[in-house]
Amino acid sequence: MRFFSRELDFSYQSKTWFYVGTTLAQTLTIFTSFYILKLFSPSDFGTFNFFISIGSFVGSFTTLKYELSITVSETKSEMYQKAFFTIFLSIFLNSLALIPIYLFANLDSRLLLFVYSLAVTVSVNACLQQIFLYKSYHTFSGAFPFVGALVNLAIIMTFLNTPNILIVAYTTSLTLTGLLFLLIVIFKSRIRDRNIFRSFKNVFYDNISYPLYILPSSLASIILTYCHPILLTYLYGEHQVGLFSFSLRILMIPSIIIGSVISGLLRAEMAKSFYQTDMVAIRHKTLSTIKILGLSTIILFPCIVFGIFNLKYFTSFQKWNGVESVAICLTPYAVSQLFYLPLSNVALVLDKKKILLFLSLIQLCLTLFMYWIAHYFDFSFKIFLGMLSGSFALFTIFACRKFYLITLQVGK
Predict the structure, then answer these.
(1) Mean of pLDDT values over 356-364
(2) Shared domain check, 277 and 155
(3) Does one domain contain both 188 and 246?
(4) I need a labelling partner for 25 at 20 to 30 A (CA). Which of 1, 141, 257, 409 fits?
(5) Cβ contacts of 313 within 8 Å, gap of 6 or more
(6) Which PANTHER family does this UniProt record tie to the protein (predicted)?
(7) pLDDT digit string (tens) for 162-196?
(8) Residues 6+ apart with CB under 8 A from 248
(9) Cα-to-chain-centroid distance, residue 52
(10) Does 346 reside within a domain?
(11) Residue 346's domain spans which residues?
């Protein structure tokens, strides 16, 4: 029990567990992908990702982005108030979102359960990660995705030849894993403040800037993460969606391992420095983040592209011909996401949410504009990917410069 009650700090060793757990989780995810390649064709994989995108989109949206306020808290009591308010709010809104999905999506009960369970899982897990970051439970932050990936691998290996059972078991495992970690946190935190559940109204109004500014700002990121398969299905077809989804899943590994971990740690550390009015530390953390991300790009992306080109030597890859060229086209896009996600925390923590909203609106308009051009001029799939990647690389250079300028302006 000492493992669960130990109060971790922001030491190098505790951060290492976060990186190690996330890396192991992604290693298992890659290993799982080889089983998925045997189970699905590109078209089947595209269809599977279509429904995953619906559930993930709903789950990301129904928190109203209040979960990002959890780490930006002065006291532990305030943090728990925000966390439980966000969890209950997201479950309520996910249930409401189930009604139009049922009425208009025309899904059978199995797929409806899949979408709803995944949406709730995404919402609750987002809150859990913020709780871990605030309390410096980096061992939990690393163990959480690893346990989920391990369970998913076991399920896929067990139900490899029964896809109908697999799709339900996959989501149920994610949901149960998230609830298990949530129960452990509640039990070990020994919450005695009875006013936590009575203060939801205050949390709602005191942090109203998150749904007003951060929620619209996150819309572009949510669309980029989850709605590409939906839009590509209607523009090009399920086969191209499968190639796109698989390539991006591999190329986004640096963003998941390096980007998301640095993003969470940076937000928590910057919040502490912000409450201490230490702007020098914030600028130092921002510059260090840029250097780490740059070094990660130089080392990791060539290795990933090389690995994709040599997948054919390790698995039956005839059905996936063309994934190599798609990966090349998407590499600038993946690099831009690696930089944008962590550095956007500068605007979030330093209360420049309007700038974040402005940049996100540009990102959203740019995405829709690329799709419109591809549709209007009937561009090929690869030309569209090249345009999308190139435009986002230029946007990210502009946005990151803007984020760094904020650290120079605030506090003067």
Answers:
(1) 85
(2) no
(3) no
(4) 1
(5) none
(6) O-ANTIGEN TRANSPORTER-RELATED (PTHR30250:SF11), PST FAMILY PREDICTED COLANIC ACID TRANSPORTER (PTHR30250)
(7) 555 555 555 555 555 666 666 666 555 555 555 55
(8) 228, 330, 333, 334
(9) 13
(10) yes
(11) 209-411
Task: Give whole-number Cα distances, 95 to 101, 111, 112, 115, in Å.
Answer: 10, 15, 11, 11
**CB within 8 Å of 93: residues ≥ 6 apart:** 62, 64
Task: Tell me what pLDDT residue 331 has.
Answer: 93
Evaluate if residue 107 carries a pLDDT over 70: no
Residues 282 and 161 in one domain: no
- Domains: count for the chain: 2
353 domain residue, yes or no: yes
Q: How far apart are CA 65 and CA 299, in angstroms?
A: 33
360 contacts: CB under 8 Å, gap ≥ 6 = 216, 217, 218, 219, 220, 221
Among 148, 169, 198, identify where a domain stops: 198
Element (H, E) at 42: helix 42-61
Query: Tokens standing for 62?
Result: 């129904």
The verdict on 155 and 280 lying in the same domain is no
Tell me, letter by letter, the H, E, C secondary structure of 279-295: HHHHHHHHHHHHHHHHH
* pLDDT value at residue 114: 73
Answer with the one of 150, 169, 198 that is the final residue of a domain.
198
Question: CA angle 201-207-210, nearest 5°?
Answer: 130
Query: In this predicted model, which residue has the larger pLDDT, 10 or 145?
Result: 145
